Hints:
Elements: H1 3-22, E1 32-39, E2 45-52, H2 58-67, H3 69-79, E3 87-92, H4 95-117
Parallel strand pairs: 2-3
Antiparallel strand pairs: 1-2
Helix pairs in contact: 1-3
Amino acid sequence: MSIRRDKVSKIIKEEISLIFLQKIQDPKLGFVTVTEVKVTPDLKQAKVYFSIYEKELKEEFLNKINDIKGFIRSELAHRLSLRYVPELFFYIDETLDYVEKMEDIFDKIHRDDKQSES
């Protein structure tokens, strides 16, 4: 990744986090964290990844975020000094779910090994 893309990604991540803290105070969205932002080489599109605390609300969260996508983008436009504000695409970051699943598998293997030793 180029240095410029990396900087733009970090700035967008920080600014979207601040927008959620300061401007979007919808309790229905729950506790969210912006985990990563990936910007295309032409800086015209950005994939924004979120981690949410309440896993069962993933679909509802994505629907609400996509409903206010224009608001988030216009807030970014006011905060950033870029020629173009990237078009935003939102995704749920499944990394933590994957890590949790792997930990459960390792725990099960460990328990099975202890039982077979007994």
